Amino acid sequence: MALVLWLALQGLTLGMIWFLIASGLSLIFGLMDVLNFAHGAFYMLGAYVGLTVYLHSGSFLVAVVAGAVFGAALGAVIEALAIRPLYGRPTFQILMTLGLILVFDEAVQAVWGPYPLVFPMPPALVGSLNVLDRPFPIYRVFIIAMGLLIWLALHLFLTRTRLGITVRAGVENREMVQALGVNIKLIFTLVFALGGLLAALGGAIAGPFEGAHPLLAAENLLPAFIVVVVGGLGSFNGSAVAAILVGLCQSFVAFYQPGLALAVNVGLMALVLMIRPEGLMGVKGVGR
């Protein structure tokens, strides 16, 4: 029982990290039909920016906020300069975002170097809790709690605010929102900025857990895409449910058969695509 609970908590930790990456990716794809392969770079850059600010300021809170703000600003700039001219041209969008991956990878190695960097853990979050006589790091509990709080905050934003409701409406029926006179270009920029913010925030929060290294983007992008497909394109809550499911699969399978962990999650994605192509909580026609 203790082992099951420990593995479940480990899976929730991974799930909350992938949720922060996948939720923005899902909204971007659902609203804008943009498959952003560079999305993992926001996560990576959030970790590096957070580390740099933390080392200079000594405040983990400031570091997390700085990483999130950087991700939002970068997302808005990329949408305006690189993605907006390519709407309706999906092949060129894919080529552009693949090119951005290379640019960001080279930029990270030029600024911070090619070797992994240690992200110091905040002193208040050092140590472990006893979970049925098994130690579980306090920082992983912090990641789980932050993931749930961010999910709640964004759920309230998307369901209780006018802007959030407009975004959700745009995901489900973009043409209707445009017909109502909404500035869809501004909404596109805001959604891209929100996606960048969420991914970079995840990178800054997970920095002490994963460190900062140039492979962060590549290692976390595929699980994020699996979460998006399983949860459903454009479904924020679907991303949360799928992230937990994928994280739990990763944790349990990796413990017993490490070589099969990724294969099982890819198989889960394939099964969902065959049975329910729109995802567990997706809307038919989204991502058309």
What does this structure look like?
The structure is a single chain. This protein is an all-alpha fold and 288 residues long. It has a single domain, classed as ABC transporter involved in vitamin B12 uptake, BtuC, CATH 1.10.3470. It has 11 helices and 2 strands. It has a two-stranded antiparallel ribbon. Strand 1 and strand 2 (134-137) form a beta hairpin. Helix 2 (39-57) packs across helix 9. It is globular.
The proportion of residues in beta strands is under 5%
Termini gap: 44 Å
Overall morphology: globular
Which structural class fits the helix and strand makeup?
A: mainly alpha
Widest β-sheet, arrangement of strands: 1-2
Mean pLDDT: 88
Over the alpha carbons, how many angstroms does the gyration radius reach? Answer: 18 Å
The helicity comes to: over 70%
- Poorly predicted runs: none
Q: What is the domain tally?
A: 1
Task: Specify the CATH class.
Answer: Mainly Alpha
Count of strand segments: 2
In short:
With 288 residues, this protein is mainly alpha-helical. The protein is built from eleven helices and two strands.
Keywords:
single chain; 288 residues; mainly alpha; ABC transporter involved in vitamin B12 uptake, BtuC; two-stranded antiparallel sheet; 75% helix
List the helices and strands and how they pair.
Elements lengths: L1 H31 L6 H19 L2 H24 L6 H23 L15 E4 L2 E4 H23 L1 H11 L1 H6 L4 H27 L5 H16 L4 H21 L4 H15 L13
Antiparallel strand pairs: 1-2
Helix pairs in contact: 1-5, 1-6, 1-8, 1-9, 1-10, 2-3, 2-4, 2-8, 2-9, 3-8, 5-6, 5-8, 9-10, 9-11, 10-11
